[in-house]
Design brief:
The structure is a single chain. With about 400 residues, this protein is α/β, with parallel strands linked by helices. It has 2 domains: about 270 residues, Zn peptidases (Aminopeptidase); about 110 residues, Alpha-Beta Plaits (2-Layer Sandwich). The chain is about 40% helix and about 15% strand. The strands form 3 sheets. The chain has a 6-stranded mixed β-sheet. Helix 3 crosses helix 10 and helix 7 packs across helix 10. The longest helix is centred in the C-terminal third of the chain and has 23 residues. The two termini are about 30 Å apart.
């Protein structure tokens, strides 16, 4: 690279990129679309990127409201590829309280700055629009289509209330539990019935009793969706809905087996039957090896950012599924108020404030510098990929 000791983020002529990024964030803030409904958001971003000189494939590999934007002229020379990810869905009733508007803007700033000002960059940087992060797992659909197989790694900066080198998340899945019994009059001839609601209630009691012997990061959350219509009619059907979370996808599968055993036992005890169905994709955990961890922490410190480690994994995201294939850099960028929680109305207001603008710029600088360091130190990327592959496939030679 032209000057391996100096980051492009130190240049004084980046204000136009930050201004354009803030306009993107403001538009997404003003036009929130929840997972699976990002029609206008994706169209806005695609039109903007086409004007900036990108060739855009949308939908990418048939995944609704997704896109892949490749800078015109890229591809003539075979270079290793880096995926710069864009999230743009919002939360029902809370708008962009997830901070995806800022994250998306930071990714576009990153790609534009490096594609336009670093002609000697040894990577091809593609912007990948990934819809449905909050609910539908759009990255998983793209993954299943093989979209990420051709990339060396992926980068994205996510907003938070503190700076952290990564998002320590949990693997997760859901389960719908249906119990089936036999309807009967609850007063006249209850002995002819089989109470499906009793089966579901006993299932929830069983999972509550299971909690005391779960691993520290195992989580179960559930609700009753259907439990009958009228008290004097023994319910013939009852339905529950639960979320399951665990530290790793392997532990999640074990937890699911234990939960289904609870369902089976409750059915036997209440003389009912049951079935289960999963309605959303399984999310994997996100891995960050030591080399990648040290890289991000060094960059944050060089940027003058106070950062800390996330002590306990929490929450889930489809970003972990991308990490099953390639290393993912996912620094968490503070909006400057520790006491304001992510996914709150207060956080949503911060997203649209000057704090949000500063976080957007900071996030862009961090992921720009990650890519610069990987470009300047080819062996570092090899080491990061080696650690990643050892975690994902420990038997791989």
């Amino acid at each position: 690279m032209a000057d391996e000791t100096k980051s492009i983020t130190e240049r004084e002529d980046l204000s136009r990129y930050y201004e354009e990024g803030w306009q993107i964030a403001a538009w997404l803030n003003d036009h929130p679309e929840v997972s699976g409904q990002e029609k206008e958001s994706s169209r806005y971003l695609i039109d903007l990127l086409k004007k900036r000189g990108y060739r855009v494939e949308s939908p990418c590999q048939g995944v609704k409201y997704s896109f892949r934007a490749v800078r015109k002229g890229q591809g003539r020379k075979k270079k290793p590829k880096v995926a710069v990810l864009c999230e743009y869905d919002s939360i029902e009733g809370l708008g962009q309280a997830c901070g995806h508007s800022l994250s998306c803007a930071a990714s576009i700033i990153c790609a534009n700055v490096l594609n336009e000002l670093r002609e000697d960059l040894p990577f091809q940087l593609d912007l990948i629009g990934t819809p449905g992060e909050e609910v539908h797992g759009g990255k998983i659909s793209l993954l299943q289509k093989g979209v990420f197989n051709e990339y060396e790694c992926a980068v994205i900066a996510h907003m938070n209330n503190v700076n952290q080198p990564t998002f320590k998340n949990l693997a997760s899945s859901d389960l719908v539990i249906n119990y089936y019994g036999k309807a009967a009059h609850a007063s006249m001839e209850p002995w002819k019935g089989a109470n499906a609601l009793n089966g579901l209630q006993l299932f929830f009691h069983a999972t509550d009793m299971l909690r005391q012997v779960l691993e520290p990061d195992d989580q179960l959350q559930g609700i009753i969706l259907e439990g009958g219509v009228i008290p004097n009619r023994i319910p013939a059907k009852a339905t529950g809905y639960i979320y399951l979370r665990a530290a790793t996808i392997e532990k999640l599968r074990h937890l699911q087996t234990r939960v289904i055993n609870c369902a089976r036992g409750a059915a036997i005890a209440t003389e009912t039957t049951f079935d289960t169905a999963q309605t959303t994709p399984t999310y994997a955990e996100l891995f960050l090896g030591q080399k990648a961890h040290d890289l991000i922490c060094d960059i944050m410190s060089e940027e003058g950012m106070e950062w800390e480690e996330q002590q306990k994994p929490a929450g889930s995201s489809d970003i972990g599924n991308v990490d099953q294939v390639i290393p993912v850099f996912h620094p968490m960028i503070s909006l400057g108020q520790r006491d304001v929680a992510l996914y709150s109305k207060e956080f949503g207001r911060l997203v649209g404030s000057e704090n949000g603008r500063k976080a957007m710029e900071q996030g862009a600088r961090v992921i720009i510098r990650i890519i610069e360091r990987l470009a300047a130190e080819p062996e570092l990327l090899k080491e990061i990929r080696r650690e990643h592959d050892e975690y994902r496939d420990p038997e791989k030679e």
